[in-house]
Amino acid sequence: MDVIIRGGLVVDGSGSPGSIADVGIRGGRIVDIGELSGVESAESVDATGCVVSPGFIDIHTHADIALLARPTHEPKVLQGVTTEVFSNCGLGFAPVSDKGLAVQKDYLLGLFGDDTGVRWDWRRVSEFLELYEGRVATNVAYLVPHGSVRVSVMGMDDRAATPDEVRQMSDLVREGMDDGAWGLSTGLWYAPMSYASVEENTAVCRAAAERGGFFAIHMRDYGDNILDSLNESYRLSLDSGAPLQVSHLQIGGKQNWGRADEVLRHLESAHASGVDLAYDSYPYTAGSTL
Length: 290
Hints:
The chain is α/β, with parallel strands linked by helices. 33% of the residues lie in helices and 21% in strands.
């Protein structure tokens, strides 16, 4: 073996209880898990008292610019995160037109933080992803942001898209998927996505689904009308064929405290009825937004 991690509590992500075991690695891959005390290795790591687990996939991040500006990414790597999934909430930067990139940069940089050293010279998703390849400390799974697609086609206009504009946006999503994206993200809370019609939302989600992608959604409301927003999300999934990821599931407002069981039952009922869905949630009581 090249490396054996010895004596740690192995938690493999399968849902099974953890167990004390050794993990053997050869050629950068795990090749054995079990009792390896009689096996020699070039390097041995004593993991007694530690948990040994696969790297964590953070399904909802806004690490787009942070990874480029600070590619060692210590705040996440030191917490065990090895894969970052972004763009989320429809807030991102590729694919994009020249004018669209200028708008997005001005609109969003307060959220994305210090961009020291970032060149801002991409337009296609393939060009954007090349900037991460072999240069950043985590894996990357990219979602096409609805916001950059809409801004590229029609700016920040507060109106429904024309059929031709919907076609252009759908084509950009397909291009992004062909360039390596895993799906689409949208944020119906945010301008200009909040201006989109049902037809537009369904079309861009369908474009991702055609390439095997899913869509992640920052819903229109996480407060009093959360069930209506969930129903809107279910309908988009069913009509487009795209599996649904509900982003940062939460319930806002003191008047809604205690509704968690109601919301979870609503999700379980939708899943049982045929909606292909999942959701993520963050483990703290504060959040931020634009």
